[in-house]
């Protein structure tokens, strides 16, 4: 577990929208696949998308809850939910699972985000 503590910290930060904490650990050729929506290829493309998401997060109140973290070798999987509120009223609720793949230098090389809107 100790060996993967950095990987868990980075995956948790990304899943919680604390993207800037992960920028130094993004591989130059990172792939972020938001399954069914879009793919972002390369470190700068991922950072640009993170900044767009941050702008949205600044316009709402966020409540992220992590339900499970699974870590094995160069993989970390986080299952959780995100609630987004504006003026105390729920805008959306997302159930999510994100899969993070790291290279041998603790750089994030692949992210697969599965986001399901709840009713």
Note down, in words, how this protein is organized.
This protein has helices at residues 5-15, 43-58, and strands at residues 26-34, 38-41, 61-72, 75-86, 89-102, 108-117. It has 119 residues and is of the alpha+beta class. The chain has a single domain, classed as Nuclear Transport Factor 2, Chain: A, CATH 3.10.450. Strands 2-1-6-5-4-3 form a 6-stranded mixed sheet. The longest helix has 16 residues, at 43-58. It starts with a helix and ends with a strand.
Q: In short, what is this structure?
A:
This protein has helices spanning 5-15, 43-58, and strands spanning 26-34, 38-41, 61-72, 75-86, 89-102, 108-117. The chain is α+β, with helices and mostly antiparallel strands and 119 residues long.
Attribute tags:
2 helices, Nuclear Transport Factor 2, Chain: A, 6-stranded mixed beta sheet, alpha+beta, 6 strands, 119 residues
Helix-strand layout with pairing:
Layout: H1 5-15, E1 26-34, E2 38-41, H2 43-58, E3 61-72, E4 75-86, E5 89-102, E6 108-117
Parallel strand pairs: 1-6
Antiparallel strand pairs: 1-2, 3-4, 4-5, 5-6
Q: In the CATH hierarchy, what is the architecture at level 2?
A: Roll
* Rg, nearest Å: 14 Å
Gross geometry: globular
Q: How many individual β-strands? A: 6
Q: What's the average pLDDT?
A: 95
Instruction: Report strand order across the widest sheet.
Output: 2-1-6-5-4-3
The ordered string of helix (H) and strand (E) elements is: HEEHEEEE
């Amino acid at each position: 577990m100790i060996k993967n503590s950095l990987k868990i910290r980075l995956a948790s930060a990304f899943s919680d929208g604390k993207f800037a904490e992960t920028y130094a650990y993004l591989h130059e050729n990172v792939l972020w696949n938001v399954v069914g929506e879009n793919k972002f290829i390369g470190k700068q493309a991922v950072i640009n998308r993170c900044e767009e998401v941050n702008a949205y997060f600044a316009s709402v109140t966020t409540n992220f809850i992590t339900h499970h973290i699974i870590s094995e070798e160069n993989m970390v999987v986080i299952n959780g939910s995100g609630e987004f509120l504006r003026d105390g009223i729920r805008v959306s609720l997302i159930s999510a699972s994100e899969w993070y793949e790291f290279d041998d230098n603790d750089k994030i090389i692949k992210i697969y985000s599965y986001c399901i809107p709840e009713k």
